[in-house]
Batch of 3 targets.
Target 1
Amino acid sequence: MNPNAPAPAASARLAEIHQLYHLQSHLIDGGRAAEWAATFTADGSFTSPSYPAPVTGTAALTAFAERFAADCAADGVVRRHVVSNVALTGDDGAGTVRVEAYLQIVATPDGGTPHTERFTTLTDRVVHDGSGWRIVARVVRRDGAPADPQA
């Protein structure tokens, strides 16, 4: 027996959260903006140094994902979100968990060679809303970027 192995309930929760992250990647990469936005709570937020300002709420998240798809088409690039090393790093005991993961954005120009466009760390607050896990708040940090003094 491994004393560090998560309990069965924790393992099931982690598997469900992995599914959320995998689904999110496929939705945004496939241009399914409204479905991607629905993986966040209605007041969910997305903060990333790659973009000028945080995005909050379903309508704004949908518009954000639509712009992502439009930018990819305009650039002639297929971008893929590759999430790995997903770890539950906190639990408030009231239904909200903290999740940390790595996210690579792999870009493939039309007729070109894939390359890693950026490597980031995700820190999310995730809640189960009765029908599934949803992101309450996502903060993205880029490798190589200066540390945020407020983080």
Target 2
Amino acid sequence: MNILAGAGASSYSGIILIVVMIVAMYFLMIRPQRKQQQKHQSTLSQLQKGDHVITIGRLHGVVDEINREAGTVTLDCDGIYLVFDLNAIATVNQKNAVPETASDSAATETPSASSQSTEPTTESAEPADSAAPTADDNKTDK
């Protein structure tokens, strides 16, 4: 009877091992994939006209039109308009929202700051230029 009891214990351990493997596969493979799909769907739902995107074929373009009923998006790729399935959008590089305008205003402020930094240099260069005619006067004296 000990032999039968040992066989029953090993069958339970085999079932437990299979259940543990299925649970591990769920947490290591299925769950992260579902999270990634949900994140991609939320990205597509927030897609707007003017967003810079990359397709699954690695084509870079700007969203020109979105047709949610048909599930398509029209991309402007340097003047060429192409229609893709919404699921063909792999990533959104640059959103059309406030951060883009903030970078534009920062870019606008940067030249003014650089022009301010060049102005004092120009002012300090003016006395040097005024010293240069003195050198020219010396040349004319010779």
Target 3
Amino acid sequence: MQPPDPRAVRIQDKASAEAFIASLMATMHDLDAVLASESEGVRAGRIREAMVGGPRKAELASAYLNGLEAAKSNAIALARFAPNGIESLKAAHRRFAAVVETNQTVLATARTVSEGLIRTLADELGKSGTPTVYGRPSTPPSPYGRNAGRGPLLLSRSL
């Protein structure tokens, strides 16, 4: 399902302005809940469970961005018909920006940690497979290539 084109939204009276703001606030609230759930899951190490909401998150993010574009294109009408709603929308957007920043920080930290773990694992496997001669790493000649004595790297995907 494609989100509506933000240029197609036309606010022409107080009721439509209030309905638009309520709809955008509801979308922001739903996206906030999905992001908070994702952040908590990643923090707790339940990555697979945390990423289940990915399609819903993408759908809500698209609807939210389209709503922001529609709000920009209808800014004059919104200011005229629902000035209090605009102020509450701005305050909610500031709170939401903090939630998004926290989510991005959690995801970046998890990525950095996982990359570090994989790099350390690869280094350790590389060290253990390299024989030393008089304290220096040495690669014995092999008719089968440089990595003849090493086994494959296996990772558990069930963690």
